[in-house]
Amino acid sequence: MTVLTRPEAGSRSAGPRHGAGAPGALLRQGMFWLFLLVLTVIFVGPIVWMFLTSIKTNPEATSVPPTLLPSSPTFSAYEGLLRLDGAYPVLRWFLNSLLAATLHMVLVLAVASTAAYALARLHFRGRGVLFVVIVSTLFVPGFVFLIPNYLIIDQLGWLDTVWALAVPGAAGAFGVFFLRQFFAMLPGELEEAALIDGANQWQIFTRIVLPNSKPALATLAVLSFLSNWNDFVWPIYVLFSPERLTLPAGLRLLQGAYTTDYPVIMAGAFVASVPVLILFLFTQRYVIEGVSRSGLKG
Amino acid sequence: MASPTTTAPARGDAARGPGARSSPTRIRRHAPWTPYAFMAPFLVIFATFILAPAALGIWMSLHDWDFMLPNRPFIGLDNYAALFDSTSAVFEMFWNGMRATAIFTVASVPFLVAIPLGLAVLLNRKFPGRTVFRAIFFMPYVLGVAVIGLLFRFMLDPNIGIVNGLFGTSTPWITAQPWAWISLVAMTVWWTLGFNTIIYLAGMQDIPGELYDAARVDGASVWQQFRNVTLPGLRTVHLFVVTITILASANMFGQALLVTNGGPGDSTRTALIVMLAEGLERFRMGSAAAMSYLLAVILGIVSIVQVLAMRERRPR
Predict the structure, then answer these.
(1) Which domain holds residue A115?
(2) Which one of B27, B38, B72 makes the best mutation probe of the A interface by having the most chain A beta carbons within 10 Å?
(3) Is residue A5, in this structure, part of any structural domain at all?
(4) Do A103 and A144 share a domain, yes or no?
(5) pTM of full prediction above 0.90
(6) pLDDT tens-place string over residues B255-288
(7) Which residues on B lie below 8 Å from A274 (Cβ)?
(8) Which residues of A touch B165 (CB under 8 A)?
(9) In terms of CB atoms within 10 Å, which end of chain A has fewer, N or C?
(10) Are residues A93 and A41 in the same domain?
(11) How many structural domains does chain A have?
(12) CATH number of B91-312
């Protein structure tokens, strides 16, 4: 049934198309903004609540009914967490997470960009097959790799080290696929000119392709940092020493230790949230662009 | 070895970038080994942490592979057979986990498809600040499951949580069913709906505006435009969203571990929790590998069925 033959169900749409000024339209505008406001409170509220709780005293945080704003704000929940030598060294976990996520991001950019360059712009035997094999692993659920990868990490002697966190994730096909699509769309003229001037492929890659792909590289950098920073399943199994944990793994420990000290738990959660929220604030264009693009591959 | 690679039409290359063979001139592009040098770093990591574990997992699943024991005898398909044998030690906990994962998937996917679709329609309108709202709805997604888990464990606490505090109720959000499922589904929807919204929104922006103009000229209402222009235009995007949402829901792990801790009883102990406990806590890795492959195969079948079902539904 097409649009053309479909009989009109009601007469509501017969009115003026842009009915600004009409009381009905004004009401509808008001409802629209009210709805957006309610949604905003739903989405931002819990994050604000996390922070507000972290600066309350525990009796106030667990009082019934709850108070919205802390009656006497205190950062005492943070003081214990930010000591490097404490039993729950949140600051150390923070640094561990930062190191792992940064290493992971750099590694992803390095290996995915070179591979994507070869797949997008060089000709070689087996390229088509290789691309299909790499992309097809995107459809294999990640949990299949967890248990055998634990053995492989153990064999490499990487258990309880930052390498276990930073390296295996860089084998994911998403980065290669994402950059390959971008590189393949770059025009070929600059490359031709550089070739005629005697540039080699490494020079073309580093001086022409990479500088012209900054948005795609930034997107991949942010996405890989975020995913590594937030990873939970893998770190809780490959890390053992309390001082080597990342924030997500440490937060689980914290939850077990401070079952009912909610300001401390929320302070830990907030410390883990701040970097990604700030990163998102400054790079949301790239993040959203990257997510948008991931849906258009079908 | 020395033959230079040229731009001679490389027929048979399945994945050819559009810009890659823009010129037919025969200039020497690179040495034959250059592409492999570019591929090598990725391929080493890919082979070590994707291809090797995929093969190793199958190998392990065919052995009585206990991490703690020196002997790991070949047992054929016994690990798989045990999953279907109601008298085996793993049968009950495995299928209990599968049931929990299935309940979560069936309960969460409709919301994770419908609500983002609605939000995307809302955000596809032209109004000041729409990119700000887009970012706000996406924001929870950048937080990790550990943060979300701790936060909702606190907010949903039956005694001191803000949710019961706000509504003046004493609902056992995490200690009784069906509330535990409602909580896990609702928090997951809150957490991840921005992702699907962005994908739908991008899909909507690819639908040519002329289609809406034509529909309006024909007197189509807003609902009719949505039904007959937007939805058909989103067919591929929709298929993608449903598929990745099913996969993501089937991966549910952190929320159940941190908020309900698998409870009440074992009711929210998902397949992934069961599998990882079997493999990485009790170190019965052969059995756990078999579980992971069985779950992957079931998910594969679900995806294929779903793709076929959605292909069938072409209008007219």
Answers:
(1) 80-297
(2) B38
(3) no
(4) yes
(5) no
(6) 999 999 998 999 999 999 999 999 999 999 999 9
(7) none
(8) 64-66
(9) N
(10) no
(11) 2
(12) 1.10.3720.10
ipTM, 2 decimals?
0.87
Residues A143 and A69 in one domain: no
The number of residues in chain B equals 316
β partners of residue B63: B74
Nearest-angstrom CA–CA distance, B280 and A36: 45
Separation in Å, CA A23 to CA A29, A184, B106: 10, 52, 43
Same domain, residue pair A73 and A100 = no
| Residue in A12, A237, A249 nearest the CB of B280 | A237
Say yes or no for a CB contact (<8 Å) between B201 and A291: no
pLDDT of residue B312: 61
Question: Which portions of chain A are predicted below pLDDT 70?
Answer: 1-21, 84-86, 295-298
Per CB-CB distance under 8 Å, the chain A contacts of B215 are 3
- The residue out of A34, A61, A79 marking a domain boundary is A79
Low-confidence ranges of chain B (pLDDT < 70): 1-28, 312-316
Q: Which of B50, B237, B279 sits opposite A171 (nearest CB)?
A: B50
Q: How many Cα atoms are found within 13 Å in the side-chain-facing hemisphere of A86?
A: 17
Q: What is the pLDDT of residue A296?
A: 52
User: Do residues B180 and B263 make contact, with C-beta atoms less than 8 angstroms apart?
Assistant: yes
Shortest CA distance from B157: residue in chain A: A62
Query: Which chain A residues are closer than 8 Å to B276 by Cβ?
Result: 146-147, 233, 237
Q: Do A144 and B144 touch (CB under 8 A)?
A: no
Distance separating alpha carbons of residues A215 and A113, to the nearest angstrom: 13
**How far does the CA of residue A252 sit from the closest CA of chain B (Å)?**
7
